[in-house]
Amino acid sequence: MPTRVPQERRRRRPTRSGVLLSEDLIVETALRLIGEHGPEALSVRRLGTAIGCDPSALYRYFHGTDDLVLAIADRIIGDAMAGFAPGDDWVASLREMALRVRAGYLAHPRAAAFASYRVTRRENEIRAVETGIGLLLSAGFAPVDATRLYLTFIDTVLSHAAMDAAFQALPRPQREADHRAWHDVYQGLDPVAYPALTTVRQELHSMGDSSFEEAVDLLLEALAARAPGML
């Protein structure tokens, strides 16, 4: 595990503008910059300018931009899972976790693209993994199965959520063009060359929608069917 910045170096310090510098302020500012300008805005120099502090002061809180990326990813998880309390129904609880993850990514679509595949090693992620594996253990899965099936569950959730977030981050004209394609292009295909698409062409408009909830529900149905209590 990488060395964390010592606590004594992370004390709140005032910036030139009088704002107290803190890890939370840096992460919030980074999320704002990414939301406004994209991931390329994430640099120590730009962060220092936005906060009103010497860029070198940021190294009291983070070892570098990659360390900050991990903190951003963990913040998104924390915001998404805030107030979540698993219930007695482990399937319903996993479904709520999935919906919360997607909502968290859609709240920060430009940050989600580089956050979804990182291991943050931080408190919010650890609590989320504890909760998810705990739910599968409560369903009767053996430790080896609970661990592997949680990985399958969360990878499915994260990949779909990241894809939805990436689409949301596209400029509006591109999103609208992609939606129109299912009407403007696919409706006029040669029925001889594309018989299957011709058969379903009245339903193809739904291809422009997110498949997130259907994918999660299919996975949860499979998990429920494999739960030891159902065998």
TrEMBL record:
Name the domain of life: Bacteria
Q: What InterPro entries does the database record attribute to this sequence?
A: Homeodomain-like_sf, HTH-type_TetR-like_transc_reg, HTH_TetR, Repressor_TetR_C, Tet_transcr_reg_TetR-rel_C_sf
- Output one GO MF annotation: transcription cis-regulatory region binding
Every HTH tetR-type domain range: 20-80
The alphabetical list of record keywords is: DNA-binding, Transcription, Transcription regulation
DNA-binding region, as residue ranges, is located at: 43-62
Keyword Transcription listed? The answer is yes
The UniProt entry's GO biological process terms, in alphabetical order, are:
negative regulation of DNA-templated transcription
Q: Return the PANTHER family for the record.
A: HTH-TYPE TRANSCRIPTIONAL REGULATOR RUTR (PTHR30055), TRANSCRIPTIONAL REGULATORY PROTEIN (PTHR30055:SF151)
The protein's name in its UniProt record: TetR/AcrR family transcriptional regulator
